[in-house]
Amino acid sequence: MDTIRAIPLSLYVHVPWCVRKCPYCDFNSHALNTSLPESSYIDALLADLEADLPWIWGRAVHSIFIGGGTPSLLSPDAIERLLSGIRARCRLTHQAEITLEANPGTIEQGRFQAYRQAGINRLSLGIQSFDDHALQQLGRIHSAQDSLNAIDMARDAGFAHLNLDLMFALPDQTLSAASRDLQQAIACEPTHLSYYQLTIEPNTWFYHQRPTLPTDEQQWQMQQQGSELLETAGYHRYEVSAYAKPDNACRHNLNYWQFGDYLGIGAGAHGKLTRPDADEILRTSKFRQPQQYLEAARQGDFRQQTRSLTAADLRFEFLLNTLRLTDGFSLEAFENRTGLPAATLQPELNNAIDRGVLRETREGYCCTAQGFAFLNDILETFLPGE
Q: What is the model's pTM?
């Protein structure tokens, strides 16, 4: 039991609805064609959490992340009822980080203040770009001015912890346009920036109607340019696409990347839980389609799948997460989080070091600059069955 207490526990809450599905999005999000079933969905979320409680008795929740979809479609009253229900069922650590994702196009005056009063202490705004033409191409429902207004409202509401999501390598984007976008984001002085490349994923509109994207070389230049601008502005890169001011890394996402535990509630939510009493680590997933999930709530069974990870799964998933961090991982953390001996990694680690994509540090192992650029190639060597 001492080991499991040492592994941080987070809670992810998924809200699956959006005003409109973006053409690049492969998340479990669904255009809201009818009125939002707000009350019944909050009921379902709390029942979902209650069903999972036997797996986490005695453990405290370190962070909560309400993502989507567009969670800011939920009213402040709904968010307050959700968080009150979570507190009634779980023990939260002192000053637990509680994040809400918000779309600048769904925010009205006073809403942020009400979210903060409900218990949200960190906001993540899906800006994506400050260029109106780019936003139209991305299918976003907000304008650049909407984003600036939302940032001002968040400041006025007293949010000290603010993340901005920004994308680069957008359709027809130039190097100078990417620079202007990022400089505008930096000028807004968020405490955290998620700066990531647009990728074309299967099962998206862009996959079937592919836009004209910058070349691979241009994308690389945008990445390098962005990293330099952010570092110069005082943002530390602690993960492949995450940059933060000192002491402002996202604790919830860090727990994912450090292979911590988390419950996932809501339509399509995933979870990962360590069960030392059964000597296993579980992956869970909930029913994906919102109506199917709500029907499952009426039946009292939310889990679509529960599976125990094999040793090969554990090796791969640990590295899939921890190698995204600039600090990498320690062998002690590998053994603590997977229950496997560190020696099982050594042949592949030595090979990666010889190839110049991984380096040994005082604490453990991390990617080199070249390794970050070819992270998928490194991970392939640890795939189950390889």
A: 0.95
